[in-house]
Amino acid sequence: MSVLDLARAEIRALVPYSSARMEAAGGQVLLNANESAWAPYGDQGLGCHRYPDPQPAALIQALSALYGVAAAQVLVGRGSDEAIDLLVRAFCRAGEDAVLVQPPTFGMYAVCARVQGAGLVEVPLAGDFTLDVDAVLAALTPAVKLVFVCSPNNPAGQPVPAMAIRRLARALAGRALLVVDEAYVEFSDAGSVAGLIDHHENLAVLRTLSKAWALAGARVGCLLAQADVIALLRRIMPPYPLPSPCVAAALAALSAPGQAAARERIAAVCAERERMGATLRRLPGVRDVLPSQANFLAVRFDDAGAAYRRLFEAGIVVRDLRRYPGLGDALRITLGTPAENDRVLATLGARP
């Protein structure tokens, strides 16, 4: 059984939109796409009067090398959010199929499922916010076509061991596509599971340049999966997902100097994570700081609402987690610069 057999039959049979850029790439006089012949004011060589490549070759090659997969196994789009939406639309029939998630987790999996009219199966994380593989498998129904796993988890921060991913992928073969969201994996000791894609055709991995690569404003992310899955999603993807300036920003970040700078920032974030965690645990009113392998800390307070207000009044905005299951006393604090982190600590009562 091919993993494509899990996808919607009408999507597999769909004749995709063929854009002018797809039909006739190259050439010197481009008169086939109804573009302006003149670059806009201030273009600075970006060529924004021309439609960008649907899947820019240079960016695909850079990401392929970075993540250790074949170029045909990479789909780039507007953050990882677009890939989540494409997966749900391609694999889930409204009113019939379902998505399985493990709350507390990233909310876009559920949002995309509900927009598509797909069902939502929720299997809570264990009490220590680790993935319960047995519980996931016990909750699986024939309707479930996608299983999303966030590693490290957002908002708790715990990674999922590769052994658990392998076990899930094997158990879900022929039944569901396993999608591992690695938005924060650069900050984790666990490492990526992208290397398992060639061994499990029902495994896909989400990556983003928004976090460790400091490109949240450029909205560049990708899906790593079997080439057949990538080709299927391209059928339903808008023809020009990434603006030319965003592609240029991504290529600059992925250059040798850009990668060196990213490594320095990642090391700084991890060092601040240790320092902040140790200091926060000693503060009055802090119950606990959850173990984290991401660029944030989930912190339990005696009175999370009061702590949130105190920070907000000091001009510091953190994420209120009290609506998430198991985190009714918690705030999520993204790790900032050392000076910003010191300001958080001082506001919460740390002595200089």
Overview of this structure, please?
This protein has 352 residues and is an alpha/beta fold. 36% of the residues lie in helices and 14% in strands. Strands 1-7-6-5-4-2-3 form a 7-stranded mixed sheet, with helices on both faces. It has a 4-stranded antiparallel sheet with strand order 8-9-11-10, covered by helices on one side. Strand 2, helix 5 and strand 3 form a beta-alpha-beta unit. Helix 4 (79-91) runs parallel beside helix 5 (108-116). The longest helix has 26 residues, at 256-281. The chain is globular.
Brief write-up:
Keywords: Amino-acid biosynthesis, Aminotransferase, Histidine biosynthesis, Pyridoxal phosphate, Transferase. This protein is of the alpha/beta class and 352 residues long. Helices cover 36% and strands 14% of the residues.
Name the poorly predicted regions. none
Please state roughly what percent of the residues sit in beta strands, choosing from under 5%, 5-15%, 15-25%, 25-35%, 35-45% or over 45%.
5-15%
Please tell me what the overall shape is: globular
The sequence of SSEs as H and E is HHHEHEHEHEHEEEHHHEEHEEH
Widest β-sheet, arrangement of strands: 1-7-6-5-4-2-3
Helix-and-strand structural type: alpha/beta
Tell me the radius of gyration: 22 Å
Mean pLDDT across residues: 94
Query: Largest beta sheet, briefly?
Result: 7 strands, mixed
Calculate the terminal CA-CA distance, rounded to whole Å: 62 Å
What CATH architecture label of the largest domain applies?
3-Layer(aba) Sandwich
Q: What share of the residues lie within helices?
A: 25-40%
Give the oligomer, counting copies of the same chain as homo and different chains as hetero.
single chain
CATH topology-level name of the largest domain: Aspartate Aminotransferase, domain 2
Q: What's the CATH superfamily of the largest domain, by name?
A: Type I PLP-dependent aspartate aminotransferase-like (Major domain)
Q: What is the class of the largest domain in the CATH system?
A: Alpha Beta
Q: What is the count of structural domains?
A: 2
Number of strands: 11
Tally of contiguous helical segments: 12
